[in-house]
Design goal:
Elements lengths: L8 E5 L4 H12 L3 E6 L2 H13 L3 E6 L5 H15 L4 E4 L15 H26 L6 E5 L3 H4 L5 H20 L6 E6 L6 H6 L11 H8 L12 E4 L4 E3 L6
Helix pairs in contact: 1-2, 1-8, 3-4, 4-6
């Protein structure tokens, strides 16, 4: 499906590499102006070059999501320049360590929760008023199958993604009478640096490239999308409902 996002304003976190990078590029290809956030300045500059090469435009915002005050200021800065936000892709996250829960260092657990959960909440709080000013606000919150599978040794990451999905579902319920549509995203195994960290022995050629995930997300961002508070499984290209435990 060819989604036209001309003149839409899109914010993407973790935009310097992986799914965030290619989602930002795909948004720009379709006419959106991309506000690209990440810690790595070099990666953001490479993204800017790629966006310019396809005729797109971007604003680079280098900052660390651990800087909660910077997240709080971001919404105000976007309002001053554009007056609204049409698209949020909350992609940035960290893995932590793969180890038994009792062996996880406190500082590692706290960092995973801070970046994956606290920063996502601060981001929602910062930009919600801007998304509500859009005629068709769209928010994609990157999650993981880890939120549901809860595999041994993946405790901090699984807990953080379960919390992120709870935030997204609650937010969707609160805004369901508005034009804002919110979905959690399960990208599935993807050829990213995080995946290499989690499964170091895996042949990266056996998992999809992040550009494939980015392309699959585009139909979720058009004005015709009506679903909210649900989960999009990229591998299946399907939106699914949440269910209570049986």
């Amino acid at each position: 499906m060819d989604i036209d996002l001309k003149d839409r304003i899109a914010l993407v976190t973790g935009a310097s590499r992986g799914i965030g990078y290619f989602t930002a590029l795909e948004l720009a290809k379709r006419g959106a102006h991309v506000i690209a956030c990440a810690r790595t300045v070099g990666g953001l500059e490479e993204l800017d070059d790629a966006i310019r090469a396809v005729g797109g435009t971007a604003t680079l915002v280098p900052f660390d999501l651990a800087d909660m005050a910077a997240i709080d200021k971001l919404g105000g800065s976007i309002f001053e320049r554009w007056g609204k936000l049409d698209i949020l892709v909350a992609n940035a996250g960290v893995l932590g360590t793969i180890s038994p829960i009792g062996h996880v260092e406190a500082k590692v657990f706290e960092k995973v929760m801070s970046i994956n959960v606290n920063a996502t909440w601060r981001l929602i709080r910062s930009v919600e008023p801007l998304l509500l000013k859009s005629d068709a606000g769209r928010a994609l919150i990157l999650s993981s199958a880890a939120a549901h599978k809860c595999k041994p040794f993946w405790g901090p990451y699984s807990a953080s993604k379960a919390a992120v999905e709870a935030l997204a579902r609650t937010w969707a319920g609160e805004t369901q009478r508005t034009a804002l549509r919110i979905l959690s995203i399960d990208p599935g195994p993807t050829r990213t640096a995080m995946r290499a960290q989690a499964v170091p022995g895996e042949d990266p050629a056996t998992v999809p490239h992040p550009s494939e995930v980015a392309e699959a997300l585009m139909p979720l961002l058009g004005p015709d999308m009506t679903e909210t508070g649900k989960l999009f499984i990229v591998r299946e290209k399907k939106i699914v409902d949440y269910n209570m435990p049986s």
